[in-house]
User: Which sequence fits this backbone?
């Protein structure tokens, strides 16, 4: 297999002809697949349906401590749900507040609260001339959307195989008081699949930010989302690392069951220091009479404990792994050695991250779309939707079936080849 | 029955002696009742338990249009839930966004969004020197808590039997551009039970605010919460009235099933003009992947339609009405003609509003508490928790049983008498 860069102009032209014909064929197949979001598949959702039998009209609706979950009260979550969510994150239940059906609103609220009320008595960010966030990229588009929505300036930080480039993070937060936060997906990161190394986590915990109200937004979305039994990442627990490093209040950690139970009806939580949680509770008493405790108890009765949840996630892995493998098989078979793309082979999470030749990502995604396969928009994994190299593409294999996934991957590699040839010819 | 004001000093002293003795007796009874919040009773919650049988592991989890409610998507609510919530408010489904488990977070979010992003492109309120809200009082303490939390100055507007004093409302909003909103509970108001007259609603719709971004926060919390079959209030529908009056965008209306199904696990909604809803949706796409659509569909399948819900609310009324009647019977028997208190006899809602002699409310509530009955804090029904006359007390009969309610009322009237006598003696 010769790298495309080593092909002569004639060979490239010949290849272009073949690939164009194949692409026209592919368009004729009338594919209609959506791989734009990390949506759980129907099979995954079906696997959780027993949760619907947890409560009947005859059920006892009380917590272990005897509180009726149908009524208002217990604003920050029922104790047994705190325990379950704490165990997902590896923290203590007293460091957890259990919220509503997904973690995105908690992250939005956290930023919004900092804007209107500041952090632990600090100046509300909306009163400051300038507020900036560090954004390791490629990263999660919805994180960047929140900061953009609030007019927060985003500074891209490169990702390494160990996590964000900590030399850059340390330098920037130490010298710029207007940098108030950083977005992190520390485990099976969206989209790179990278899990932060112990050194990275320790360097995060030991940051010396110029801004006293600097916070790490630690989105532990894939904490127990392993793909394999024998290849699993583990990361250091950030709250205790921060405490050890003398920065006990520096982190807001988020997690949810959106990709464990139901994307539309899960349970989400935030973990942080007592000072931060007390501050959050102060706003919560104004904001809510309490989240849906019935659903919290439903989840606890269904999963019972973290072991039950881990067992469940092994079944999830059995559903998702074949899809990852279907994509990886096609990528390996069709693109290895061609010099026109690199990709990740993660141990968990929901995504494969693909890096095309510079300047090709938008064109590849457009070509896929034209032939009926919708990918996440190129650039979406970068702040402001702008990938400076126009290279990164997020592949989300969770929703389609393995067969559909293989079809989509076939089309994808065809588009990668065609766009790469055209790019090389244009040079 | 002689009014206390007509009693001689000697008669008052004699009365004080009797009442003090009775109060000491009452303290000995070891009562322990909480009437502080409008919490649904256990019997009410039990009556809704059939909703738990709506879904089993075998259920079809699709909307009528075929959308799987277990997954993300349909951010602004499933169509059938829009219809149900719209029918509660008497508006069109296209004017409705269905949200999470209670309306308080929607109200909080609405104010928060105005603070950080302004209204329909206007200056964010957090960038303004001064933002004020009109607060008809006595009113709902949680409304006032939201505006206080955001540093919004609250101006008290007196309530009349027809609603807020509209002469004052019209004058203030017309002359002060910093007045950006008003809190309203238009039907069976908390705590007065007043329903706004047609003239009041029309005058609201025809307001000419100096601030283009003035909004009416119309909390229609008790829209179908009648206590009687033959004594029911109806109010004019505010959205269409505003449209007729040339103010189509002036209202955010809120409602929920917190006091229909479960306080901890209901469904809530906001209704407004298309322009306002589009603006809300713009923030929502950043804030959420969608609320809990499983619970939305659960409610629709259970109640089926507004008729099913109204039938259900008649059963609720049968549970709550005896508690109201128990209190009213005691008030009438013990206080009528004494000149030391007036009270409401509402056709619906959750509260009886009691006005003691000036300067007596705090002392009455404190005396009740000392003897084991917790009432809503005196003053809570006014902005900043300060009732200028120290006169209003909110009675929340929903949670206790009718027997407990009668006991609590006996204690309450005893405290009213005792405090009133002491007040008169001190004059």
Assistant:
């Amino acid at each position: 297999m010769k790298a495309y860069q080593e092909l002569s102009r004639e060979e490239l032209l010949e290849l272009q002809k073949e690939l164009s014909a194949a692409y026209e064929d592919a368009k004729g197949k009338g594919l209609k697949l959506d791989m734009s979001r990390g949506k759980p598949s129907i099979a995954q959702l079906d696997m959780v349906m027993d949760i619907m039998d947890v409560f009947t009209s005859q059920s006892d609706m009380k917590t272990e401590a005897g509180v009726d979950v149908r009524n208002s009260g217990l604003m920050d979550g029922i104790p047994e749900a705190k325990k379950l969510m704490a165990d997902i994150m590896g923290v203590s239940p007293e460091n957890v507040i259990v919220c509503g059906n997904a973690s995105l609103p908690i992250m939005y609220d956290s930023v919004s609260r900092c804007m209107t009320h500041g952090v632990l008595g600090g100046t509300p960010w909306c009163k400051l001339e300038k507020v900036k966030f560090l954004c390791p990229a490629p990263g999660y588009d919805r994180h960047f959307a929140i900061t953009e929505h609030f007019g927060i300036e985003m500074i891209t930080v490169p990702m390494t195989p160990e996590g964000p480039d900590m030399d850059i993070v340390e330098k920037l937060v130490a010298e710029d008081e207007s940098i108030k936060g950083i977005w992190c997906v520390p485990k099976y990161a969206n989209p790179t699949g990278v899990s932060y190394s112990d050194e990275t986590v320790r360097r995060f915990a030991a940051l010396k930010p110029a801004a006293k109200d600097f916070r790490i937004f630690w989105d532990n979305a894939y904490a127990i989302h392993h793909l394999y039994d024998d290849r699993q990442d583990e990361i250091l627990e950030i709250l205790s690392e921060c405490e050890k490093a003398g920065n006990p209040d520096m982190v807001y950690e988020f997690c949810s069951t959106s990709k464990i139970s139901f994307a539309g009806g899960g349970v989400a939580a935030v973990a942080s220091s007592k000072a931060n949680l007390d501050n959050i509770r102060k706003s919560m008493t104004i904001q809510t009479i309490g989240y849906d405790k019935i659903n919290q108890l439903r989840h606890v009765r269904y999963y019972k404990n973290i072991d039950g949840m881990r067992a469940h996630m092994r079944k999830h892995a059995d559903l998702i792994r074949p899809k990852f493998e279907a994509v990886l098989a096609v990528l390996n078979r069709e693109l290895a050695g061609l010099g026109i793309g690199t990709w990740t082979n993660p141990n968990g999470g929901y995504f494969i991250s693909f890096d095309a030749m510079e300047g090709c990502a938008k064109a590849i995604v457009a070509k896929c779309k034209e032939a009926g396969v919708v990918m996440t928009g190129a650039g979406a994994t970068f702040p402001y939707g702008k990938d400076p190299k126009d290279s990164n593409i997020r592949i989300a294999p969770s929703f389609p079936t393995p067969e559909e996934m293989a079809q989509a991957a076939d089309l994808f590699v065809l588009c990668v080849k065609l766009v790469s040839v055209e790019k090389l010819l244009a040079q």
About this structure: Chain A has two domains: 4-44+310-426, 61-304. The CA atoms of residues 84 and 304 of chain A lie 8 Å apart.
